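[Discussion] Sanity-checking designs against the backbone

I'm trying to build intuition for which residues belong where. Below is a structure token string of 367 positions. I'd appreciate it if someone posts a full sequence so I can compare it with mine line by line.
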């Protein structure tokens, strides 16, 4: 709203500036070139006529008829406008040139005698001042007025098109924000339910560890609910969040699982969208570990100045069809959609799987 008001003010100022130049330049020319006031009268008369044609078409005819798909009314109105102002300019021009002619007659009558002492005869040396030839006046008026009509029409159409494009961009932005909010709201419950399942399985094994798990879960949910809702977050906060989640998952791991985690120790704490990497880590713990056979998870991150390379490789455990995998793709699917919306053309996501492994390679450029 404030931006639109500022643009409106700028447009008004530009119009006033143009008028100040159009009205002020002749005064400078008359003074510098020592031209008579007759020139000012003629110039301002034609300027007022042309300005009226421009603004009537720009402010009234184009929005009311041309934009409302009533083209025949628009063209008829423009024709009537040009005819009316032709007569206005013709009458005003005749009055001005008649006044100039009368002034010339008066000057001739009051002219002092010539070198031989003879007064000059009235009108003997006077050039008769009259309105320009009718044909030349019509041609000049039609060409200039048509130029103003098309110029004002083009300017108005351009402004309208710019406004429409801006509205479309705002609508796309609102749609994007709505989709991002929807996807993010899907991620949080999905993450929460999976973590509760992990804690549930831990309760029967170790009550103390399950209490620690609930405490860590509360910290994770605090970040999900409050911190990540503020918009962009910092890379350091995301790393802390992933570290806490991994610590929570460690509580239910046994010796058959090999876990390798490598997060950067020194990095630029860049701003980024929250919860970009956790779906892949969550997927690795959910589908990549087994209590009965050897399994592994390798998580690594490389942070450069304006980019991040994330890699997650885990073993692929075949599970019985007990309904557990019914919604197993929600997290990965949402992660891919969010990346496409947040960083279009600035990221590369590769998912590769074999019979025994599943690998995620994600590169994001934040510039």
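Best answer:
Here's mine. Compare freely.
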């Amino acid at each position: 709203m404030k931006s639109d008001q500022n643009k409106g003010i700028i447009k008004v100022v530009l119009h006033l500036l143009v008028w100040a130049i159009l009205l002020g330049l002749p005064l400078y020319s008359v003074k510098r070139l020592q031209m008579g006031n007759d020139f000012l009268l003629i110039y301002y008369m034609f300027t007022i006529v042309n300005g009226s044609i421009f603004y009537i078409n720009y402010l009234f005819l184009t929005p009311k008829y041309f934009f409302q798909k009533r083209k025949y009314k628009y063209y008829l109105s423009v024709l009537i406008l040009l005819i009316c102002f032709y007569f206005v300019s013709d009458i005003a021009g005749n009055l001005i040139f008649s006044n100039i002619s009368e002034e010339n007659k008066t000057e001739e009558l009051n002219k002092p005698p010539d070198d031989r002492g003879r007064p000059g005869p009235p009108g003997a040396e006077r050039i008769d001042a009259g309105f320009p030839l009718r044909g030349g006046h019509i041609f000049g008026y039609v060409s200039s007025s048509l130029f103003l009509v098309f110029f004002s029409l083009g300017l108005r159409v351009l402004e309208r098109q710019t406004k429409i494009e801006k509205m479309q961009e705002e609508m796309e932005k609102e749609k994007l924000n709505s989709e991002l909010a929807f996807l993010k709201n899907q991620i949080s419950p999905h993450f929460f339910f999976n973590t509760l399942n992990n804690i549930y399985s831990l309760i029967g094994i170790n009550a103390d560890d399950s209490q620690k798990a609930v405490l860590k879960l509360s910290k994770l949910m605090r970040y999900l609910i409050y911190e990540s809702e503020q918009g962009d977050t910092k890379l350091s906060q995301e790393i802390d969040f992933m570290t806490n989640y991994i610590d929570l998952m460690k509580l239910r791991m046994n010796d058959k699982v090999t876990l390798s985690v490598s997060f950067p120790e020194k990095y630029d704490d860049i701003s980024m969208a929250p919860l970009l990497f956790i779906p892949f880590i969550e997927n690795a713990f959910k589908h990549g570990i087994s209590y009965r056979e050897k399994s592994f998870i390798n998580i690594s991150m490389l942070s450069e100045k304006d980019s991040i390379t994330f890699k997650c490789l885990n073993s692929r455990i075949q599970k019985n069809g007990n309904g557990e995998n019914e919604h197993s793709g929600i997290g990965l699917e949402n992660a891919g959609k969010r990346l496409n919306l947040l960083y279009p053309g600035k990221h590369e996501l590769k998912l590769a799987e074999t019979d025994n492994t599943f690998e995620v390679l994600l590169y994001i450029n934040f510039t």
